[in-house]
Design a protein that fits this description.
Strand content: 25-35%
Mean pLDDT: 84
Largest sheet: 4 strands, mixed
Radius of gyration: 32 Å
Oligomer: single chain
Helix content: 25-40%
Strand order of the largest sheet: 1-4-3-2
Structural class: alpha+beta
Number of helices: 2
Distance between the termini: 104 Å
Low-confidence stretches: none
Amino acid sequence: MMRRLWLALLAVVAISCATSPPPPPQPAAAAAPSPAPAVEEGTTPETAVLVEAATEATGIAWENDWIFRRYGRFRKKTVALAGQEGRKLDVITVELADHSEKVLYFDITNFFGK
């Protein structure tokens, strides 16, 4: 009787340990073309952030607020003026909290010289 119990237990364990066969291989799906990398707003002259300000003081404050809202704490390293196709651009290099640097472009045509 004891021997039959052990054989039954061994059979149950052996059956429960059996694995099912792997699923049949699926045909390879055609790879979707990867989208072009998105250009972050303000990181090129073409994507310069349009500053809607009436004066230079309000424009600079708006730029600083925009940078802070986007990137958090930052430190201005350089500020330069550039022109492209009749537009006036502020080119600002900032150091972010993680010590990385970012060059940002702002279209200041609306308030330049006011």
